[in-house]
Amino acid sequence: MRSLAIVKSGRETSSALSLGFTIERLQMAHDTYHQPVLVQEIVELFTGLGAGVVVDATLGGAGHSFAILAHAPQLRVLGIDRDPNARDAARVRLASFGDRSKIVDATFADLTRVVHENGEFLNGDAVVGVLMDLGVSSHQLDDPTRGFSFRADAPLDMRMDPTRGETAAHYLARVDSHEFARILRANGENRFAGAIAKSVLERQPQTTFELTEAVERAVPMAARRRGHVATRVFQALRVEVNQEAEQLDAGLESALDVLAPAGVLAVISYHSGEDRMVKAVLHEAATGGCTCPPELGCVCGAVGRVTVFKASAQLASAAEVATNPRARSARLRIARKVAP
């Protein structure tokens, strides 16, 4: 098991193994809504913090929050999620912790407002940690009614909050082919972006299977990559419908604002676009925006706001990937806020 530099270095191997075994048992017993990734690494990170509040800005089924509360009695959790089904599952999951948790209907772009409006829950305690586990949950993918997956036919919805905003079908009814092709390229669908955009918009799919068929018509069999031909198209639509890029940019800035000095930000991303954005924001925060030539040193007076754990992202272990294949694409980046 890999340890994190932020965690106290004197932890014994036997304690780490015990922690891993306990977390595995907790996951087997409780992760019916969603199996979270990198739980052991997240628990190690946050149990090393002092007393205060951790904001789980993407609460989901509360898998990470449950593990944090179970192993760190000095911490409380303020959980944020825009999916009503996730909030319901999280309330059940965290009920045994009583007033150590509170769940709020919001997105992580609203993080600053949520923290300010929940001063009574914070009760003077600092925000010592923020966790952001990006993307779509196992439950959302596996629920055929939500329209996130090409594996089951369903209305083309894809909203994280199914009670608000426009569906993916409505989005496709108003977007033009040039803009849709640009979005597909931004999500890694390069060679056939134009052809896919044309095929999809001509057919105006209303279900996931209709969207898949439109993509298949545009991509020759011989040119198809390993994996499902529609994967990146579904991802691009989901990101756009839920305004995930804009939400992430605002959420990262809000997280850095609300963290107390020495507080920790941990972000788990699942595709290259997300990870690049997280890396860029943390680099900007670490350097203070300095663009001075490295060989000359900083002469512009820029002051960093954080220290970054390491330049590369942390990956899930082979053992975790073997038991949870969705962990394969997970990328964890960590930063600690420095005093001004």
C-alpha Rg (nearest Å): 21 Å
CATH topology (fold) name of the largest domain? Rossmann fold
Q: Describe the sheet with the most strands.
A: 7 strands, mixed
Strand content bin: 5-15%
**Helix/strand/pairing category:** alpha/beta
Q: In angstroms, what separates the terminal alpha carbons?
A: 34 Å
The CATH class designation of the largest domain is Alpha Beta
Give the second-level CATH assignment, the architecture of the largest domain: 3-Layer(aba) Sandwich
What is the number of independent domains? 2
- Binned, the helix content reads 40-55%
- The number of strands is 7
Question: Helical element count?
Answer: 15
Low-confidence stretches: 1-18, 23-30
Order of helices and strands: HHEHEHEHHEHHHHHHHEHEHE
Average of pLDDT: 89
Q: How do the strands line up in the largest sheet? A: 3-2-1-4-5-7-6
According to CATH, the homologous superfamily of the largest domain is Vaccinia Virus protein VP39
Shape, per Cα inertia axes: globular
